[in-house]
Amino acid sequence: MISQLIEKIKKTNAPICVGLDPMLSYVPEHVVKKSFDTYGETLKGAAEAIWEFNKEIIDHTWDLIPAVKPQIAMYEQFGIEGLIVYKKTVDYCHEKGLIVIGDAKRGDIGSTSAAYAAGHLGKVQVGSNVFSGFDVDMLTVNPYLGTDGVKPFVDVCSSDDKGLFVLVKTSNPSSGEFQDRLIDGRPLYEWVAEKVMEWGESSMDGAYSNVGAVVGATYPEMSKILRRLMPHTYFLVPGYGAQGGTAEDLKHCFNEDGLGAIVNSSRGIIAAYKQEKYKQFGPEQFGGASRQAVVDMVNDINSVL
Amino acid sequence: MISQLIEKIKKTNAPICVGLDPMLSYVPEHVVKKSFDTYGETLKGAAEAIWEFNKEIIDHTWDLIPAVKPQIAMYEQFGIEGLIVYKKTVDYCHEKGLIVIGDAKRGDIGSTSAAYAAGHLGKVQVGSNVFSGFDVDMLTVNPYLGTDGVKPFVDVCSSDDKGLFVLVKTSNPSSGEFQDRLIDGRPLYEWVAEKVMEWGESSMDGAYSNVGAVVGATYPEMSKILRRLMPHTYFLVPGYGAQGGTAEDLKHCFNEDGLGAIVNSSRGIIAAYKQEKYKQFGPEQFGGASRQAVVDMVNDINSVL
């Protein structure tokens, strides 16, 4: 899977993904109103508004980007109706040829992780049939439970040609509380990084492994070290834009050849129309604002590579 | 919420919860067949078989127990259809007066955790209405991202009278890979425990906090230390039975007064009919086997308290 992602990154010359993390407050009023008029002020009304919002953004950006990263929490908050729209979004992105990174940060004991892996990445057997529940291409995974909690996801990467990004150093302000604590002189995130490489060895796909790492843009000194430590691990880099990470901050996430990282932006793209910079588009042309924000982000990042 | 759980534990004299973690392979053939005959060998067919299975087990055990713990992964593996049955199970358990601990192990950066907290524990605003997506009473949470990833869940505990169990020391074989590593002479899980207590201070509910901890039954020496360290923290204890933890192993999870812990059993209860010990029930009476397994588990645990 990682080789497919790399191919698409090269083709688009855009080492980025668009985070489809819609808050209802990001959705322009006319879209919300239309959905509420049809479905009422209900979970379905909210979910359908998000679907129309996503669709417009995808329609305006798909040809510029290799991948999207829907954050499943933003759909789960609307219960079943939200998850129906998550799945619809995944399927629509696939129709458009995009790689879908499900940002779910799942992780549990072995047998439970196997169920998550089957439901999100792989297939589940029902009688003599097999089905894919959510069918994303890559998934974010939490490492706190150790090898037996991650291994079932890695197995599906190998059997079904899928990919992972395991949380190593996250972008949020308090990520250091546990992740930065020193163990035998090295921060916990480096020990996690070592394990990510070990897990990844069994699912190599060209120069990189299908088992990648989440490395936040907001801690440039740490990503520099992690880049050197993990030469064959692709990084999913959150924290650019709204969370404070700049292109300069994240250039060390890339290898010399300009590969090795894919940078996510969510709010900065999908709610671009709300920014002063893109206000000429107005809420009616929010898709156009998102497209321009993608172009600007790609230029910004490529300028430091 | 924790005071409600304690009240129900006292009333039933059963410090246990039943893990509603159905694998399709646990569901007796006649139940699966009936569902496949109606819905086909489809995701809906699988999900409905699990629903009928859950319902029978709940009907046979609800009066003996304070709580259930559905593992959401087992439902997610069947996609939307599975999650519809997860929700149906949560609602049915509520009708029966049970406290529902959603075992979801969610955790992300702040704004994303807020969405998970709203969807699983709290409420989401849609226009002038509010809705509960999944509406469980308590939720398991992963601490790897630190305070800002956990705080939104704690806030909902306080605002909506809900509860959490934060992963501290998990029951799986490789839990020690990161959790046991020493930081300034103390294992990571103790540092997490310190934070859990800190988070819990803002949501006390009687003698205990609404912010509990997951402490596996499979590491008795560690749970002994954690029990002393966290006197006001309720423990959710997985690992009893099928995972190898015995009543003797987990007695140190309890305080002197017999409170302080709730022990989960999943396979040992819901697939009891498959055990030699309960074979007189047969697959047709699998609910009866589960009931007897609950009685035996409660006696076993109470024998060491």
From TrEMBL, chains A, B:
It holds the Pfam family OMPdecase. Residues 15-281 form the Orotidine 5'-phosphate decarboxylase domain. Signal peptide: none annotated. The keyword Lyase applies. The keyword Lyase applies. Pathway: Pyrimidine metabolism; UMP biosynthesis via de novo pathway; UMP from orotate: step 2/2. GO terms for molecular function: orotidine-5'-phosphate decarboxylase activity. The active site is at K105 (proton donor). SUPFAM superfamilies: Ribulose-phoshate binding barrel (SSF51366). It comes from the Bacteria. Belongs to the OMP decarboxylase family. Type 2 subfamily. This is Orotidine 5'-phosphate decarboxylase.
